[in-house]
Amino acid sequence: MKKTIITVVGKDTVGIIAKVCTYLAENHINILDISQTIVQGYFNMMMVVDMSNSGIQHGDMADDLEKLGEGIGVIIKCQKEEIFDKMHRI
Fold first, then answer.
1. 43 FRET partner, CA 20 to 30 A, in 20, 76, 78, 80?
2. Backbone torsions φ then ψ of 70, nearest 5 degrees
3. Residues 6+ apart with CB under 8 A from 42
4. Helices (H), ranges, the chain
5. DSSP label at 32?
6. What pLDDT shows up at residue 85?
7. CA–CA distance, 51 with 80 (Å, rounded to integer)
8. CA separation for the pair 38, 41 (Å, rounded)
9. Cα torsion 30, 3, 72, 36: sign
10. What's the count of helices (H) and strands (E) in the chain, helices before strands?
11. What global pTM score does this model have?
12. Cα separation of 16 and 69, whole Å?
């Protein structure tokens, strides 16, 4: 399994989840886990996805989602699971 962590942060607006999920579905990327909160108008979402069935490369997905985020006014970051784990190890 090729797991990737996706984070989305920014001002809450209509359609953030829909646009991110549409992109993932179109690229055959499966959502394994998702958590989202809105705190005083700020949207925060973290997703764990599986890219095993996708033909897209991780770097291309990261670039695409970054551009998608710019278009809807949020910051979207992607990290491979192993890198995320190493960066957040105590």
1. 80
2. -60, -40
3. 9, 10, 11, 12
4. 16-26, 58-72, 81-87
5. E
6. 62
7. 10
8. 6
9. positive
10. 3, 4
11. 0.88
12. 9
